[in-house]
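Dephospho-CoA kinase structure dump, as promised
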Amino acid sequence: MRIIGLTGGIGSGKSTVSNLFKAHGIPVVDADVVARDVLKNGTGGWKKVVAAFGEDILLPNGEVDRPKLGRFVFSNPEKRQLLNRLLAPYISSGIFLEVLKLWMKGCKIIVLDVPLLFEAKMDKWTKPIIVVWVYLETQLHRLMTRDGTTEEDAKSRINAQMSLDIKRARADIVLDNTGSLADLNENFQKVLVQVMKPLTWTEFALS
Ligand code: ATP
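structure tokens r here:
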């Protein structure tokens, strides 16, 4: 099974591209969905997080108050690292399980949409790696429009991540999303042809 890696920066357009793959019948494993699942009430991830951060981060119904937890760890790098360390094993095994399910269904090509593909060292699972790239100004503008946040807030969220230019340098394929949605669709069609091509023996040996 070929596992295509899809990553990029916050608000660079990963979900938009992931929807294009789905529209072409290519299944996508979305790490954000898995990350939400591992925090569901009573799960192992939920228990670890409550033990580490206390019941203050829970809503009255017992669910983790994600925005509150997000604000808390965002302003505290040590707590952010702790949260990542606690959840990483649950997220990677959750992703692995989703991939396994698709493999058992006989899927030959799937997409792994993981915002932190490089940071979580999941890049070695995937080939080719597509990085959805935009100019910083465009990324900032789209983030502010989508989330209704201030420029300062959007900038600090972008700056908290690995630079998009570093990710771009590590990509096998750079999908430029600076233009309109029609431009993206056009760029996507070219990428689709590229990723659907059968691997040569050399690529296969090196993958
Ligand atoms: P996140 O990391 O926060 O999950 P993302 O990388 O998945 O973000 P999207 O949600 O796909 O990014 O895109 C960010 C915003 O930009 C969305 O509101 C989306 O509709 C918009 N957008 C994406 N691509 C384009 C485009 N080419 N032209 C205009 N708007 C776009």
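The pocket of adenosine-5'-triphosphate is lined by residues 8, 10-16, 115, 142, 146, 177, 180-181, 184 (CB under 6 Å).
lmk if u need the other ones
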